Amino acid sequence: MTNFNELGLPKVLLNRVAEMGLKDPTPIQQKAIPLALDGRDVMGLAQTGTGKTFAFGLPLVAQMLENNARPAPKSVHGLVLAPTRELAKQISESLRELCKGGPLKVNLVVGGAGIVGQTRKLERGTDLLVATPGRLLDLLDRRALRLDQTRFLVLDEADQMLDMGFIHDLRKIAAHLPTPRQTMLFSATMPKLMAELAQSYLTNPERVQVSPPGKPADKIEQEVHFVAKAEKLNLLIELLDKHRDDLALVFGRTKHGSEKIKKHLEKAGFAAGSIHGNKSQGQRERALAEFKSGAIRVLVATDVAARGLDIPQVRHVYNFDLPNVPENYVHRIGRTARAGAEGAAIAFCAPDEMGELKAIQKVLKMSVPVASGRAWEEIDAPKGKGNGGGRRRGGGGGGGNPAGKPGAGRSRRRRSGGGGRGASKAA
Questions:
Q1: Residues of the chain with pLDDT under 70
Q2: Which residues in 382-411 are b (16+ Cβ under 10 Å) and which e?
């Protein structure tokens, strides 16, 4: 199936898809949409940036239009759960685009926004509700909505919901949902707890997979710099200075650390912003809007931004701090090379992050090409042999980079997934 006309979608949605400029379905859409239109439960596995939102959004909207039933007060016909406010907001915007000009009403409920206003929006009933688990439970506890008439359920980025500790919230939400219902679960990776989650929510699901779990997009150029922790900021400024006109995402591990990075970049003359857990919802939305518009060129974030941000113009992703959860590396770098574009993922590795790097390479099933420095363990092992133990940037430049300059080793980069050697909580 190479075009939307062959997927079984109703004409009203095909017209809407054409108006939105969507031409050909992505592989995950080709596989998931016909199954979902048949009413099957679906478990979809695909890397970020592959069109998962419309893989569930199109059949969801199609079936709700066919049912044409008006929701009762406080009831919800279709529920989409997402792990973060940013992703939930993005999904709701995409669904509103699909429903534009039609009878379906889409609501959004997330933390960080006034619960009273959200309660009022739910009073008349909702066709499609996009929510984060915590805020949904708050509203259920207040009896501001009911899920006994929910016939369609989507769990998006289910692996991150597990990473963020939402398994208990998801169990509580499951108790409010009726059967039978149709459930679709989408994820980029398959942690062990996913089997329990699938068993709780899905009935004889059809599994569709378009790439191995944990595999990043093919057009992402990856590299790692072995750099002392104290030198990371200098290296970041040096590298960012080479592409000041491009949009770049910088990932830190903690809220405090990310804010510190942002302030240093501003002092260095960069138009920078930040999003993390200490920012209000309004502040986060403003920073994202400024980043999308190009008003700021560098956005510093914790893993709250690693899922669902769809900003095609992002050309560079920096892992200033390597993530504690190796799968999060895949999600972080998936913010670039969106929709077939090319992008670069640059990682910094300090001496105490070698364990994280090895775990990442195990998930990737490849070694990340070295752009500057040498692996810290290689430097420390042959003590007394003239390599200086803890020199700046991992000893300044194994692999033909004697000056230790970042970028000098770029000829060694390979496209992710292309011929790599077998490789040995976000705040």
A1: 1-2, 48-49, 211-218, 305-309, 338-341, 377-427
A2: eeeeebeeebbbbbbbbeebeebebebbee
- Region label for 394, one of left (φ > 0), alpha (ψ between -120 and 50) or beta (otherwise): left
Q: Report, at the CATH architecture level, how domain 4-209 is classified.
A: 3-Layer(aba) Sandwich (3.40)
Both tokens assigned to 171 = 């169990």
Residue among 215, 279, 272 nearest 247 (CA)? 272
Answer whether 68's CB lies under 8 Å from 120's CB: no
Per-residue pLDDT of 77-97, as tens digits, reads 999 999 988 889 989 999 999
**Residues forming CATH 3.40.50.300 domain(s) in the chain:** 4-209, 220-412
What percent helix, strand, coil does the chain show, rounded to 5?
40, 15, 40
Written as one string, the DSSP assignment of 305-358 is GSSS---TTEEEEEESS--SSHHHHHHHHTTSSGGG--EEEEEEE-GGGHHHHH
Overall pTM surpassing 0.70 (yes/no): no
CA dihedral 323, 329, 331, 333 (to 10 degrees): 120
Interval 4-33: pLDDT, tens: 999 999 999 999 999 998 888 989 999 999
Query: Position 167: which residue type?
Result: I
- The first and second tokens of residue 85, run together, are 């406010």
Residues 422, 365 contacting (CB under 8 angstroms): yes
